[in-house]
Design brief:
Blueprint (H helix, E strand, L loop, with lengths): L2 H4 L3 E4 L2 E7 L13 E5 L5 H22 L2 H20 L10 H6 L3 H11 L12 H11 L6 H21 L15 H12 L4 H20 L30 H9 L6 H12 L3 H5 L6 E4 L2 E6 L9 E4 L2 H11 L13 H16 L8 H13 L4 H8 L16 H14 L8
Antiparallel strand pairs: 1-2, 2-3, 4-5, 5-6
Helix pairs in contact: 3-5, 6-7, 6-9, 7-9, 8-9, 11-15, 15-17
Amino acid sequence: MSNKAETKHLKLRGNIWWYQRRVPKHLSHHYPNQSFIQISLDTGDIREARKKRNVLNGELERKSLSMTSNSESLRFRELVREMDRDRKNYPHDWDAGIYPDRLEEQGRKLELEAYMTVNGRQDFSRKYRLTISEGFQMWLDDIGHTKTEEHSKKIEKAIKKFGTYCFKHFDWVDSPDIAIEDIERKMVYSFIKHLGKTLKKSTVQATISRINTIWMYLERVDELEGKNPFKDHIYSNAEADQSEKREAFTKDEVKKIQAHKWEKPVYKLLVDLGIYSGCRISELCNLKKKDVVEDDGIVAMNIEKGKTRAATRTVPLPDFIGQRLLEHIKDKDEDDLVLGISSKTASRTFSNFKTRYISQSKLKAFHSFRHMYITAMERAGVEENVTAQIVGHERGKTMSYGYYSKGHELKKLKEAVEKGLRLMGTAEY
């Protein structure tokens, strides 16, 4: 923990530590005529002061959470927009049917505060501000069902990481669930620099892009306005300027990988499927028995759950690996996972094995098989659009098994696969 984080909201006066922080804007009505919260912690021990500070921070957070729910926040903003429209269209009698005293008597606090905000008596908009997690939930409820579960979880993770970073490093941020209107460009820039210390350029860009997805959605549904702080950033540093393309395993390394005696035999199948299909490890781990199909002697995999919607496709397999796959799943139920291991566990297991027995290079990983597969297809003269269709780089005319007509196109794809994989120099070719 940095020294700045250790003493955040703490100030030493004489020999006594004080809790001192600016009043959070959305709690300002709880502290009228007060810009700062200042409380003596009655201790000169920094460790005790930190404990008391954390308790006070927790109390403020609970007060904030108890103020309003996401549904109340959304309803408040809808009411304000409706009243604003009425005020613009009917400036003389827009509030003729609104009786503040009656609203107060009936305990309709939300409607009363919306009315007071619009008529200028007191602005409650900060109390019902839109937070980044609320924006994510709106996106999830509205269009999240059109995305993969993995994609949605990555967006949620990126949002939480950004909010936590801002809460720790910017004094005016009063919660990890940061308000959208509080996000400034310099905060995003600082976050990018922070991520760049340990992550690759492409990973940093992907993280910002995921948060930007929520910002752009909220713009489209008219929940926010102003410049987008996540756009047009420069991602450049010493590490980022280096090539980040995966390195291919050598022929000897591939033979060593295939010859390895795994503790769980299913990893042998996982590796061979990676080599001979070009699929991502997550796609293979999400594969179910019902996704393995056979037509006219050709065994293929329906990739229904990929990195993106464009990844949905059918991948024909070489005969030897196709038969092994059928044998492996013969006693499974239709909805059973083919491999029975999560992509996270599989990635970690293969990475540990690779580092220990094959190579220390960070650019060599399971994903290298995909790059090798695509390279082999290119060198074999397979048309780019055919390769793209097989590996799921762009949407083609036939993206699931049900679209094939009598297996004709599947045969053409199988021929392309065999043509490309002969150049990989692995044991069976």
